[in-house]
């Protein structure tokens, strides 16, 4: 990375650590596009699914609900349950499509990619900076409550659940520990460093 100009940044984030806000602000500072929620829309188009259906499976390992959902997502409503069809999704289709979307997008850098195990997909790619945002649970709970209007317990439960899913996603598809600091060039605690300060730091490294 030291001898190669940076043209791709991946952003891993604990839920509530401000990853999306960070990516948007960094993109504005650098003048780079950001690939975040649009991944879901592109996956939906690729698989010919509704966006809401992809959202339920995005960055989640396949549990029993995912297995049932993936079997029914694109079968016509009138189709009897139990009938096999080549148009059924298998449980890893969304993850595989997301990986393809991310890889294709990265062929036209510069680009900032949020989540979806970008740090694993591009682990050996020259010119890539891997950033991870973390924060103490209470700090993340405050941010989630302000954003979604959740009570304290709901915000804490959602943060734990989504973090666990993201860790399991990394393990299932890339056999890597999501929290492993060796996957990242920079780990920033947004409970102690503001989003603006974090952006300034990464902008300086990139330039």
Structure overview:
The protein is of the alpha/beta class. It has a domain of 144 residues: Rossmann fold (3-Layer(aba) Sandwich). It has nine helices and five strands, in the order E-H-E-H-H-H-H-E-H-E-H-H-E-H. It has a five-stranded parallel sheet with strand order 2-3-1-4-5, with helices on one face. The longest helix has 23 residues. It is globular and about 45 Å long.
Percent range of helical residues: 40-55%
CATH architecture of the domain at 8-36 and 92-206: 3-Layer(aba) Sandwich
Largest sheet: 5 strands, parallel
Distance between the termini: 13 Å
Strand order of the largest sheet: 2-3-1-4-5
Task: Name some characteristics of this structure.
single chain; 207 residues; alpha/beta; Rossmann fold; 5-stranded parallel β-sheet; 9 helices; 5 strands; 49% helix
Provide a short characterization of the protein structure.
With 207 residues, the chain is α/β, with parallel strands linked by helices. 49% of the residues lie in helices and 11% in strands.
